[in-house]
Write a structure and sequence with these properties.
By secondary structure, the chain is an alpha/beta fold. Helix content is about 35%, strand content about 15%. The radius of gyration is 20 Å and the shape is globular.
Length: about 375
Amino acid sequence: MPSDGDRPHVAIVTGANLRPGAPGGTRTYVLGLASYLVSRHVPVDIVSNGPAPDVPRACTVRPVRDDHTPSATRFQRDLRRWATLENLGSFDVLHFQRPDDASFVPSRPSTPTSVCTLHGDAVRGVRRRRGALTAWAYARREARAFPRFRAAIAVDTATAEAYRRRYPGAAARIHVIPNAVDPVFFGSSAAHDDAAVTGPPLFLYAGRLSIEKRVDRIIDAIADRERLLDASLVIAGSGPEERRLRERANGASVRFEGNLDRAALAAWYRRADALVLASEYEGLPSVALEALALGCPVVALRGCGVDALVAEGGGVLADDPDDLPRALADAMRLRRGGTRARLPDAFTWASVGPQILDVYTEAMEGRSV
């Protein structure tokens, strides 16, 4: 039962890097969700992989280790040691951000209700980044953990469909509730809503530098001088592909900014002609929501998972990576012609937060939601 009337005590469990400026949509989701829960006077703790200095003051941080580790294996080993009956006893809901993390928390009658957000198809992502053998090992851990979830929240329809096919017995418990933007992006943008973008064309990529993001194809597109004369690209983020991308960009008008805090990234959204995504697939990336919230168009590949958001928000879809120069030129004309991108209301925490609270309540009552 809820610990405070209708308010469950929630523990958000995440291995994401929660330090300021760290790349990754899970970090943004966790901090946004925590802020929303605190605003609704819901007790919330974050069971974290290292320090988390940006959380709301009313939120308690319970790190399972002193320093962040990029290794999921090491985080999960420490999570197993942390997950004692004493540490778990005060919670009503454990909200995981990666399905296999749940397999490292003991399954007892007294274990709190487990819920998981699915930030894209994890098996597919692991296979692309780490290979088939690692993906097979991950899939086994995920399969052990998934039956424990009273509810799973997929941030997009494609992810929900992938998991319903994989776990047909849990299909009724898998629900589509989109990612949402942190309200700070609305408040911080007011003074800049009507600011015009001027000067040579400038495009932005923000996110993890990993192979499936295909940032190399964005670098190639910027080099199309026929459509994008004098265009430049700013790359914000870090990851295993950074060295290769720097070599690819040698001599091109590309600037690597590294990991940026929220204010610095917001400033680039305001200056850029478009945020550019060339991913093979996406869940519902926070950077796309943030860009639209600040009036910056989004260019993405058709079929990568953000089609509806881009179309509704005022961005441009490219048919494939070779079509990116055309899409970038179209976005530039929109931006400089006075067409302001916008974030649809469905992707704000005011809309998304109550749906997640409903999932908590109904999952705790043991109903399929």
